[in-house]
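Supplementary Methods S3. Input chains for the assembly prediction are listed below.
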Amino acid sequence: MAISVVMPALEMAQETGKLLAWRKKEGQATVKGEPLLEIETDKAVVEVEAAADGILAGVKSREGDVVAVGAVIAWILQPGEGLPAEALAAAVAAPSARASSAAVSAAAVSAEPTKVSGGGGDAGPKISPKARRLAKEHGVDISLLRATGPDGNISTEDVQAYIAGGGAAAGTQTGIAPEGGANALKASGETLSAIARIMAERTTQSWRSVPHFFVTREIDASGLLELRKSGGAGQASINDVLVGLVARALQKHPRLNASWTGDGIRENAEVNISVAMAVDDGVVAAVIRNANKLPLAEIAVERRELTERARAGKLRLADISGGTFTVSNLGMFEVDAFTAIITPPQAAILAVGKIVERVVVSEGQMAIRPMITVTLSSDHRVVDGARAAQFLNTLATAMVKPASWIL
Amino acid sequence: MPESTTKTASATRELTFAQAVNEALAEEMRRDKRVCILGEDVAEAGTPFKVLSGLVQEFGVERVIDTPISEAGFTGVGVGAAMTGMRPVVDIMFGDFLTLTMDQMVNQAAKVHYMSGGKWKVPMVLRTTLGASRRSAAQHSQSLHAWFSHVPGLKVVMPSTPWDAKGLLKSAIRDENPVVFFEDKMMYKLKGPVPAEEYTIPFGVADVKREGEDITLVATSSMVQVALEAAELLEAVGISAEVIDPRTMWPLDEKALIESAKKTSRVMVIDEGYERYGVTAEIASVIAEGAFFDLEAPVKRLGAMHVPIPFSPPLEDVTVPTGPGVFAAAKKLCGKS
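Predicted structure tokens for the full assembly:
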């Protein structure tokens, strides 16, 4: 049976994806699980794997095309099979509404546990047909727009204001410029890479829509250092240990591993830790799945592989999707403490500073201890102060005696 | 024959709407001996609205014919006269009485050309009135032009100014098909420029009565005057309104309406007929289909309330669109309430 290849989506607000490259040519054989094409999604440049063995046919989108999420861009046929009759109609029927994109992407991207429901419907401001068209033409993510029109809806003026404010200037560029080549600069002046633009959009959206609050705790890091010193951690870094401990602590505090769905809270079944990684143009978050169940050594291996792929710009769709909680560590940059912005639909992110020796008072005695400061940013729709504190308490207990938790 | 589609030509004189209609009839009767007038009180009385004053004196009782009170009958006479070579202008005093003419107009006049395989034609004009606020009560105040606009084979004309009334009526009389010509009885005393020279206005060409940027007011007949009043009020609050008059319900200048909608992104359609199932619905639909992706808001309709037009003046005045009412609705549509 002919299988359609559709432009996938990772995010509710994603309306289009850019086709960067076909890994197979029309008429070539595809192998299920092997890279079929490379797209630029909301988050990064990713590879999309072929969904089936077969022959690539009916390729509709060329490299560089920006395609509506859910649109059929090609077909995988069985030998001797012709293009299906709906091949044309399917492309025309590409959904533009957010709710339907979500449904299509859920079908296109397997195992997407953090998909937020209820993106469409009556929630949020409506947008006029003209404003929607203008936003689409300029590549503006409508979820980032301020609604100042009649009845609190998004008007064309809101889109124009966003564009005038530079918001869409990057969105309208046609060339992404990872290598800094001819496409690096447009005549209009500075340009942004895809990752930088996505980072700008996502953080703006989160900061505007998610009610953040912050809880900070200083924790004795002696146990972490001893674990490494004793060789108990093997090749794992302090950060790997932290990922493992956070994942295990989350298991005891499911509300921190949850999502705001628009009208309620959903606790996520899996504990998938997104690890923020600095790359040239910004930050990407690669996901270590089921980190609560993985032995430390496996976490370390996976994190290293993800880091390498991220630096090479070769992250796959599966590498960046499905995170339920993020750990961001700036310790290597000599930062004592900081607050981080949540990545919706996740409900929390842990910001980790460097380990530094401090004078602490314990049982009436001054002592010099290696201390680490962690700051938890939480979505107050999902998590309250007491829950955040209880989670940090569990995490602190685990960090003080990591071996008993992770080995 | 020069055609004047807009009022760009300089007109040095002003006529009332009634004088413009009268002049069109007189000129066409002089031009073509087949043109005659049939109706109640059209001759000596010159109709209750005095629109036809002087015509019987110039053209005689054989061409300006008083009929009994028998709308179905003399409309049928008009259809037959047109089929057999005349160019009758049938006068139905109040548009409310059109109910009596429906079989002649809908089943005969509109269909004869088609049913005869093109062998017969019905070049007649049915002139009638519409419009409320004359304190004439429920049976003398209706605007029933939507009924005729609904029927294939009829052309429906609704002038809003003396200039348009004259040019469009001359085109109606010269048309080879049945034309229903609606005059708002409240506009007969409205004065406006009318060229002294010969001109006609073609059907199916809308006219922008006022240019604007922020909202389009599509208006018909006397509602054009209402819309122009609203546009003045809107200008005072910083909203630039475009007023466009389709002038003929059929043929309808869809392109011009859609273009104006695309330009301003917001549209109100104002018509004195009943709002429900009225011409506002058709025009709004045409615009929604043609300009959907350029619209900022749903197309808003304003017509007569779904009630019999009351005799009580205060009640009558709230049943039909007014300048301040259009102003308020337009302001809301623009997000400035």
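The two ends of chain A are 48 Å apart (CA to CA). The first strand of chain A starts at residue 3 and ends at 6.
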